[in-house]
Design a protein that fits this description.
Length: 87
């Protein structure tokens, strides 16, 4: 499955980490100007696996709930900030 990334969330694209695994570089959460981020970005900021957020969405059991836009999950940046205690 091809993963799409929001260009305003990524700083320089994709880098290969020390272990040879693909690593994404994200901008600080405080710098994001869009109202929502995709599941992969939200998982990064929350230090969780994307599948955990997908489970929250499916079971409606997490501390925050996503919006579904064109069938895809988008997570509210302000809710992520609130959950993490970031202004």
């Amino acid at each position: 499955m091809m993963q799409s990334y929001s260009s305003d969330v990524l700083t320089g694209g994709v880098n290969i980490g020390h272990s040879g695994v693909e690593c994404l570089e994200y901008v600080p959460l405080e710098s994001i100007s869009t109202p929502t981020v995709n599941t992969v970005a939200a998982a990064h900021y929350l230090h969780l696996k994307p599948q955990t957020l997908r489970m929250w969405a499916c079971k409606e059991c997490g501390p925050i709930r996503p919006r579904r836009i064109n069938g895809r999950l988008h997570w509210n940046v302000n809710e992520i900030r609130r959950l993490l205690g970031v202004k």
